[in-house]
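Hi support team,

I've been running sequence recovery on a batch of backbones for a student project. Most finish fine, but this one hangs at about 90% for roughly twenty minutes before it completes. I'm not sure whether the input is malformed or the queue is just slow. I've pasted the structure tokens below so you can try to reproduce it. Let me know if you need the job ID as well.

Thanks,
M.K.
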């Protein structure tokens, strides 16, 4: 079982005691001294594992690619939460949201209606959450576009999902290796083999 010191909290730290029924999305902003990037899933606090080199490099590549290619009315948010309901406040690795949804420097979450794309980069301890729990919750929230990114042979592989309007569930993903080239939610072209070296926008 993880100790408080594993999250940089010190040996004297006492874990918060959940109220009856579990924590709520509003509690996430009120609880003191939570570890960075704590999520709320079904009323339970979920703590992030330490960063890995792959996740850091993949996030940097995708964030930069989205940043330089997103239309002006959209904004790329990194490690921000989205409030899906009273008991769920998830933190995708990346989101593309409506720029108009930004309310100021103290903002900590976005409404689902403002989310255009969510991206999860799978780590060893998040496989079940990203493949199953978050996949299902993002679909239930109506997020039209969702990417799940996994490591394969040292390179990122993107599983690209789009919500089926008939079932309101994600269709079978399109798998992208080496190059992520899409028309939706806006034209995107990212060289996935360049995840560990600088990428510069085309002139």
């Amino acid at each position: 079982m993880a100790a408080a010191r594993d999250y940089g909290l010190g040996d004297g730290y006492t874990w918060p005691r959940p109220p009856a029924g579990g924590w709520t999305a509003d509690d996430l902003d009120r609880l003191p001294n939570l570890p960075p990037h704590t999520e709320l899933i079904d009323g339970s606090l979920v703590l992030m594992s330490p960063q890995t080199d792959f996740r850091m490099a993949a996030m940097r590549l995708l964030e930069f690619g989205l940043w330089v290619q997103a239309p002006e009315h959209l904004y790329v948010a990194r490690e921000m939460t989205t409030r899906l309901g009273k008991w769920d406040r998830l933190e995708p690795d990346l989101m593309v949201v409506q720029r108009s949804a930004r309310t100021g420097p103290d903002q900590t979450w976005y409404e689902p209606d403002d989310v255009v794309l969510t991206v999860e980069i799978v780590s060893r301890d998040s496989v079940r959450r990203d493949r199953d729990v978050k996949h299902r919750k993002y679909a239930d929230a109506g997020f039209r576009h969702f990417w799940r990114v996994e490591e394969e042979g040292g390179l990122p592989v993107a599983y690209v999902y789009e919500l089926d309007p008939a079932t309101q569930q994600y269709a079978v993903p399109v798998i992208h290796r080496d190059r992520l080239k899409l028309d939706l939610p806006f034209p995107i072209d990212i060289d996935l083999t360049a995840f560990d070296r600088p990428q510069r926008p085309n002139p």
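--
Follow-up from support: It reproduced on our side and the slowdown came from queue contention, not your input. Residues 1-8 have pLDDT under 50 and may be disordered. No action needed from you.
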